Automatic annotation (TrEMBL):
Protein purpose: Catalyzes the reversible phosphorylation of UMP to UDP.
Domain of life: Bacteria
The keyword Transferase belongs to this UniProt entry's keyword annotation: yes
A GO MF label: UMP kinase activity
Binding residues annotated for ATP, in chain numbering: 9-12, 52, 56, 159, 165, 168
Alphabetized InterPro entries for the sequence: AceGlu_kinase-like_sf (IPR036393), Asp/Glu/Uridylate_kinase (IPR001048), Uridylate_kinase (IPR011817), Uridylate_kinase_bac (IPR015963)
Name of the featured protein: Uridylate kinase
Top-level EC class: transferase
Enzyme Commission number(s) from the entry: 2.7.4.22
Subunit and interaction comment: Homohexamer.
Activity regulation info: Inhibited by UTP.
The Aspartate/glutamate/uridylate kinase domain, residue ranges: 4-213
Amino acid sequence: MHYKRILLKLSGEALMGDLQYGIDPVRLQEYAQDIKAIIAKGVEVAIVIGGGNIFRGVAGASRGMDRVQGDHMGMLATVINGLALQSALEDEDIPVRLQSAIKINEVAEPFIRRKAMRHLEKGRVVIFGGGTGNPYFTTDSAAVLRAIEIKADVILKGTRVDGIYSSDPEKNSDATKFDDISFDDVLRKGLKVMDTTAFTLSQENELPIIVFDMNTRGNLMKVVMGEKIGTKVNL
Ligand code: UDP
């Protein structure tokens, strides 16, 4: 295996599958099976899950809601997704621990870094819910933060697009895909990989990011085996 410990970032929207809202159980099961396959190879898997399929603080604020309370709703949404993912993984007989950045002890363990690392060493998947626990941040920032904390080798950003393009491939047919790109070039070209806070945190800590299409079965395995799919952002 090319990577020993990975941090997989899944957006909330990824869990919607073909639905307009909420969680698609079929998609969830597919993800769980793909994750099971890499665990069988001995990869340690931590996951940060988004909440955009349920609620985003900015969307609430644009309709007059207090931003901080909206962000609290968004963070709770990530815990809901985390529970759904935990359940799907357990259905595949994978040991899992959901840790939350917001204390919600009856539902999830509190985030404790050393405990999380111990779970990983024992072959358990650790899902980090609740984002960073702070408003005005995103789950991409949480993904980078947790990846650095647990000393992950790489962040795998699973999306529905198969990498980083020169422009939006869903809008421009002449958009070209990068196989490798530097952090500096992403910033220079104004490409969108993660929000700036998350992206610069990753750059400053020399943590590579691979953007890949998580919705094609088997891709996760290919990425952790070092196959060149998606786009790798490196120094
Ligand atoms: N959020 C937050 N702090 C964090 C992470 C998330 O306040 O550290 C809130 C924020 O409102 C955000 C929502 O949770 O819009 C859902 O997270 P995100 O938008 O990152 O989810 P994704 O786009 O990955 O589905």
